[in-house]
Amino acid sequence: MRSIRIGLLGLGQIGSSLYKLVSRKAAFFQKRYGVQFKIARILVKNMRKKRFSGLDAKRLTSQASQILKDPSIDVVVELIGGVDSAKKYVLEALRSGKDVITANKALLAEKGEEISALAGKLGRQVFFEASVGGGIPVIKTIREGLGANRIDSILGIVNGTCNYILTQMSREGLDFQTALEQAQKKGFAEPDPSFDIDGIDSAHKIAVLARLAFEQNIPFRDVYCEGIRHITEQDINFAKNFGYCIKLLAIAKRDASGIDARVQPTLVPQDHILAKVDGSFNAILLDGDETGEILLYGRGAGPEPTASAVMSDLIDYSRGLESRFPEASKKPLKVKNISSILSRYYLRFSVLDQPGVLSKIAGILGKYNVSISDVIQSERKSGTVVPLILLTHHVHEKEIRSAVERIDAMKSMIRSKSRVIRIEA
Ligand code: HSE
User: 196 in ligand 1 pocket by Cβ < 6 Å?
Assistant: First the structure.
């Protein structure tokens, strides 16, 4: 029986889950793939930390070189997260002649070009199914299942923590902080949850998907990123009144003028298929020119689904399959600046309820070519501050921002900073 010796970097939640999966399903993997997977050595920071039962403590080491320089290790699985040390270890593993499996979206989004270049030069493989969408096989779907397609559009809900928070705020009327604490308890959130709620995790993931699908280098600094901290229950309820829900969408589209890559809270029509994706679930809607739309849906966060994705890479490795980012196009497309994006918008103003306010706001919007499609002012208390909600037709971001800035400067009628949320329609 062929044996594959794995060097594991990191024994956090996903690493532990992988270790248990490899032991629990050893017979299943042997029967199905004719391979014995063995986690031979594990890099940990703290050798004294109490871990789970069933772990063979003799396999732990605090020295990366005991894995990276050990010729008996066939493949390195990087699950330590973060960018700097992970990059160093991955490059070292490749130079030592080992293929690498990583779940590290930050590393791939920020240093993917360098890692791919080295892997290509050395003829090594970098597998990264677990970097996006947890247990959802989105990387293999793009690379293999949709291999006959040109993909020009990817819409994703790729952060379980944010989707859970927005769902709980909408369904249970929870406030943001309580919903975040629940997500942390369930083990979805990143060690630093600002990566989730500020949209950075989603931005890393959409950069990885766009790079793979569009065969273009996507400089991570060019991916526009806005999180969900400022979304209130009030916005969620107003959106519902208009027939929308609010989701954190990761968007990548391309046309002849460039690539649109962004993460933003978005009003999604309630009858859109992504509006039905609730809780910690993830979904990725891909548009292939041959297949049309494909929706992948499943558990995008959590140790077991993510370990399942790492295991699928180990299986691919055992079969000698290739994996790496495709060579970037020789005619690179630019990532568009957010100011040039054309979208519909939800605008919430906190205004004094008095005659003439709506006409002043509408007048300024008109000057910036913003056309209004709907208006609500549900609370009416003359002389007090009330929310005034407007939905717009399509307009350039630059114009909406300039108009709202001008409206916000009218301190006699505007009482706090206005809210602008894009509408996907
Ligand atoms: N923290 C991520 C999420 C999971 O909430 O989706 C890992 O990518």
Answer: yes
Q: Separation of 196 CA from ligand 1 center, angstroms?
A: 7
CA 58 vs. chain centroid, Å, equals: 36
List the domains of the chain with CATH numbers. 2-131 (3.40.50.720), 150-299 (3.30.360.10), 339-423 (3.30.70.260)
Q: What are the helix and strand counts (H, E) for the chain?
A: 14, 17
The one-letter code for the residue type at 27 is A
Can 205 be counted among the known catalytic residues? Answer: yes
33 burial level (CB within 10 Å; 0-12, 13-18, 19+): middle
CA atoms of 406 and 408, how far apart (whole Å): 5
Protein residue with its CA nearest to atom 4 in ligand 1: 301
Q: Give the chain's length.
A: 425
8 A C-beta contact, residue 296 and residue 223: no
- Cross-strand pairs, 2: 35
Q: Would the CB of 160 count as within 6 Å of ligand 1?
A: yes
- Geometric angle at alpha carbon 72, from 70 and 74, rounded to 5°: 100
Taking the centre of ligand 1 as the mean of its atom positions, its distance from the CA of residue 170, in whole angstroms, is 20
Is the C-beta atom of 189 inside 6 A of ligand 1? yes
Question: What pTM was estimated for this model as a whole?
Answer: 0.95
Ligand 1 atom 7 nearest Cα: 301
Element housing 352 (H / E): strand 342-352
Q: What digits encode the pLDDT tens for the residues 135-190?
A: 999 999 999 999 999 999 999 999 999 999 999 999 999 999 999 999 888 878 88
Question: What is the per-residue pLDDT across 14-64, written as a single tens digit (0 to 9) for each?
Answer: 999 999 999 999 999 999 999 999 999 999 999 999 999 999 999 999 999
Q: Which atom of ligand 1 is nearest to the CA of 301?
A: 4
The answer, yes or no, to whether any atom of ligand 1 lies below 6 A from the CB of 104, is no
Q: Give buried/exposed letters for 134-162 (b at 16+ CB in 10 A, else e).
A: bbbbbbbbbbebbeebebbbbbbbbbbbb
* CA atoms within a 13 Å half-sphere pointing along the CA-CB vector of 204: 25
- CA-nearest residue for atom 8, ligand 1, is 301
* CA 307 to ligand 1 center in whole angstroms: 13
| Ligand 1 in reach of 141 Cβ (< 6 A) | no
In a 3-state reduction of DSSP, which class is residue 57? helix
Give the pLDDT confidence score for residue 385 in this predicted structure: 87
